[in-house]
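Why do we care about 3D structure at all? Because function follows from shape, and shape follows, mostly, from sequence. That is the central idea of this module. The next example makes it concrete: a single protein chain, its amino acid sequence, and then its structure expressed as tokens.
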Amino acid sequence: MGCASAHRLLEAGLKVTLLEKSLPGAESSAAAAGILGAQSEVSGAGPFFELCLASRARYRDYARELEELTSVSIGYEDSGVLEVALDPGEGSIAVGRAEWMMQRGLRVEILDREQAREIEPALTERMVGANYYPDDHQVDPVQLARALASAVARLGGEFRSGVTVTGLARSGERVIGVESHDGVIHADHIVIAGGAWSTGIAGLPPVRTRIKPMAGQIIQVEHRPPLLRHIIYGYSGYIVPRADGRVVMGSTLEDRGFDKAVTTEGLHRICGMAMDMVPGLSSARMTDSWAGLRPAPEDNTPLLGAGPAEGLYFATGHYRNGILLTPITGEVIRDLIVGREPTVDIAPFAP
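And the structure:
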């Protein structure tokens, strides 16, 4: 979120410095799976759903723009998502979701078992059906983070790595900078985009909700030749096939503070989920595993907007949808700081 905001602000002619305690995009951004699941991952209609749709609509051009600027491909693939129902109860939920999305005018297909397995023959025979979301796509989050950092550097942004923000510097009611171990760093505008650490800054004025870490474990396997063409989304996890045969499988949802350990129990759960939906993955070779910390807002709504102090902005708390919301977040922060009305309604997300 920091790099995405910096990218747009630099384009608008502002001078931008990014403060980073490690490497840009090295935390939850790089740990994500990269599903652009505006339909498959969002549970219901409302302002957040509309924000996700708006960001998803920007992604194809966003990917092209970043590649033209940096020569880094972010792995954008229009793979589509199959939301798989393994029993009648899940099937009923899937049909209900599809119906309200159709009423909203969105593309979704309700498939029976045979139709779903015609699209993806590797799916289990015991499934009862699936929803197909052709407009939910994917990117490679690691490549996205690299492209955004490169874009910021090419546009003249300054990176200060190894900097831990310890508090806010204020003059009356206005925030005029941040405090760090290196002293006060002054700025006209301060954007809080620190993921799970965002609301732990000393001196932060009261905000609508606190952000806490929510751990998630992921496994990467490889299957040659590639076994799947679409993202598979179930009620216990997801499977994301990359074009080169890699398959990302996840993820757990664990409230255990800032602990990013990969556990045997977590790996067991993920592998079981994946093989329940795609039995052929039992022969895939495991190549990597990791865990990340999602920035989870306690009221389930991101902090996106200006305030509550003058000169302060928030771009955090995107929880499971940070990669999806990257384009729209950078755009919103730019518009607010340059004094332009955002193209989407951000009132429900005000800090």
